[in-house]
Amino acid sequence: MVQEGFLLDIIPYSAAIDGLIKTQEVDRALELFPDICSRGYCPDVAAYNILISVLYKAKRVSEDEDILHEMEVKGLVPSVITYNLLCKNGDVDQAMLFLSQNFVEDRKPNVTTYTTLMNGLCNAGRPDDALVLWNEMGREGCSPNNIALMAFIHGLCKCGRPDTALVYLHQMQEKEMEPDTFVYVALMSSFLLILTYPWLLKF
């Protein structure tokens, strides 16, 4: 069907790639990319996200890096899904590199992107880097919402930093934001793990 020009005229190429991947034909999906370009179609971020996800699952990291480089060369802006995929698969540094490129090209990330990256940094055991990014978000005039603050508190607690997380709980309270029950549970559990019981009285 591809030879007849039928597939790409009727079915979006992202769906074609997705279909090949679902049938475990990753190599054919990779081959389809240059073919698509030669036919005047340009793979979008969604198509690249599909490949990134599958290559990570297949532990084909070197090929994934090639795909990411190709995105950069083509000037494609990573979506929140791209950042999430990178962070989930432990490639936080690549996600941060994309973020820095956005600033160079005067494309400011939104609060969802920042939240995804800070969560990724905390999951990677890098709370200090997450704090740096939090401060950068403030300098860029991007205000954290309720979800961002709760996610950050959770992340800091995972890293054994409940004292720092408590500061952000107080920020939520000052802004009249309502933390959910899980935030309090995360804080109490984290304090108990580091055996600082007196801090529990601060709630």
TrEMBL record:
Q: Which UniProt keywords apply?
A: Membrane, Repeat, Transmembrane, Transmembrane helix
Entry's InterPro entries? PPR_rpt (IPR002885), TPR-like_helical_dom_sf (IPR011990)
* PROSITE patterns membership: PPR
User: What is the organism of origin for this protein?
Assistant: Quercus suber
Q: According to the lineage, what is the superkingdom?
A: Eukaryota
Tell whether Repeat is among the UniProt keywords.
yes
Where are this protein's PPR repeats? 9-43, 44-78, 110-144, 145-179
Pfam families named in the record: PPR (PF01535), PPR_2 (PF13041)
Q: Which family does it belong to?
A: Belongs to the PPR family. P subfamily.
Q: Which Gene3D superfamilies match?
A: Tetratricopeptide repeat domain
- In Swiss-Prot or TrEMBL terms, this protein is called Pentatricopeptide repeat-containing protein
Keyword hit for Flavoprotein: no
Q: Where are the transmembrane segments?
A: 181-200
